[in-house]
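Hi there, hope your week has been kind to you so far. Thanks so much in advance, here it is:
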Amino acid sequence: MKPRKSKKRVPSFRKLLKTSKIKLDNKLKNKQFKQQSTAKKYRKEQRKLRQAVKDAVSKKPMPLEDNKKKHPEREEEEEEALPLDMMDEDDMKLMEELAQRASFITRDLSSNEPVHAKKRKNESVIEKYEKKPRRMQTEPEKELIHLLPIKDKRGIIPQTMEKPVKEEEEEEEKDEIEEMEEAQALDEPLPVLTAEELLVHRKKKLQEKKMHIAALASAILSDPENNIKKLKELRAMLMEQDPNVAVIVRKLVMISLMELFKDITPSYKIRPLTEKEKNTKVRKETQKLREFEEGIVSQYKFYLENLEQSVKDWKQRKLKKSNVISLKAYKGLAEIAVKCLCELLVALPHFNFHNNIIVLIVPLMNDASKQISEMCCGAVKTLFKQDKLGYASLGVVKVISGLVKSRNYDVRPEVLMTLIHLRIKEVEVKKDAEDITPKKRFMSYQEKRKNLSRMQRKWKKAEEKLERELLEAEASESTEKKLKLHTETLNIVFLTYFRILKKAQKSPLLPAVLEGLAKFAHLINLEFFDDLLLVLHSLMVSGVLSHRESLHCILSAFQILSGQGDVLNIDPLKFYTHLYKILLKLHAGATNEDVAIVLQCLDVMLTKRRKQVSQQRALAFIKRLSTVALHLLPDSCIGILATNRTLMHTFPKTDLLLDNESQGSGLYLPELDEPEYCNAQNTALWELHTLRRHYHPVVQKFAAHLVAGAPAEGSESLGHEFSRRLPTELFEAYSMKGMTFNPRVASVAPRKKGKFSQEASFLNEDLNELFKVYFGSAVSSFGKCR
């Protein structure tokens, strides 16, 4: 019997129905891969053959004459040893065939070496190629497309059709033509251009790049899900190699990608899919969304890596192999990269890789470049102000604490000053307000059954369910979670502050630490109060602190005592004495800005602690503040007089300072630094009469008001614009930072009385301007004197 031939059966229709779509796709992919591999092998062999032919043509055989010239004697001996007459016809034919080969002609026949010595070394490229085993070129398998079957009497007949295969010869020819054109273009010398032509060419090329960037960005913005692959194309332009436009193009691409990511990123963090989720079948829309999320996360990651590399290149100051960008251009690229990172830090605190951005930005806050340091510090401050939940703030505070410790407290003060902008105090106030407001109460089952009908109960149940869902949707993070985050953040902040107070008291970070303690002191745990007050007092007594630092020390101490410290029985007399002593150091020069801190200290020390303050202490402070007001700028003077007004209302018996005829025991001692024993009750506020003639109208008004006893009604009373504002608010409202007069002085119209009067009016205007520059004001009384 003949053996049965194994023919490949055509799959039946039922089998095709059972076969899954994934298997069919895999089979189709395998066939395509085999076809591509066979085509690649065939092309590789053709290239090798072409190369071998070129090498064979380039190599020429050595002429016979050279060998004859070298050994003429041997040639005669060979001719004598081999007479041609004695050779047969077959030998002659063999000799003629061998003579046609270069190896036979050039070989020395008299040498004793074997004929095939060093054969492998002298083999030509063609012989090597000929010896290699070859495969017959097999035609690629033709793909079959399964069509709808035909039903006949015999049964179901499956129908197939050959899928047309694209010929790859055309593609090879195109590749060869392109290679030839590139080679010709490289061989041709570049045309020499003038400077103007180079500028025009650069401008044209830059415009083309800008248009390309704009087209890609607009396409991504119009349809991010379908055009997510264009992000990769745009990101590839970060590696621009044209030295004429490389720097500008890279900067433009950095900023464009930053704005794109701010617009198209979702408002949630994208997590990686699990294996189970990847294997489960989902709808097309879900699959499309997953592909978009994976694409945007990967491109965002690569973009951040590019920005980080730009900063590292500038830090290391190393040129790349391509030398496309100079060392000077690295700084500009690094500044743009840092700016993009700062924008992303603030705009996308919820998105992936936010902690990575924090790790990049925080060390740059301490950078030697002032511009980069200010940029990073400003971004962190904005993040602290906007962060309502506390996750991002906690991450930044952790990295700042680690940076300060690793640098051994050798960092810029601005790094610690950013911690003052944390929103912890605001959230705590908001939490208390939420606790006070009454919560929504729903009816119990018994109340419903008693007061409502069956239909009404049904409607009420649906309504309450909807209200609960709305309340859950509107509710933010739970207060317990917020409190936990803020507690952890504050613990790290205080740990950093206490380390500096203990180990680096002479550090330039001390003012920032004291200012931070002054803001968050009311949140410190009671266990640390005694030790902290001792440290602050020892710092004040040591004399190493500046005027501003001493004020921050005093403010920190009283902030501690005003919060949870109310329960402690501590009399901070030493801090009162120190403030009373340093008040005389205030003047219209550099310390004028410190008046804002003085006003805060006076509010915490005297107004809010009115029950613990004696009358003698209040009288001494009012007298000294009136003395200090004589040599301050108008804004500080207004703040001091507003504080005196508050103290006179808080301590009504201090009006005896307005009476010249009152007598007491002892003599007023203005040089004494102890407010309790200076006998302030034996003096009067004569300074107010001097301030009534002040050039500033608001100072005049406050001085007249205080001389009249600070009445709430009457002609000498203040209006609502002054009486309802705090001293610190008035100080800010009439600030003299711009050296401008507030309110503005009305200009006096010159009289027309001839040439002399005109010259006098011009002189008046010039003097007025000089007074504005040097004294921050215009003299309104100058016109009266004229």
Notes: The longest strand covers residues 144-151. The chain has a mean pLDDT of 77. The radius of gyration is 46 Å.
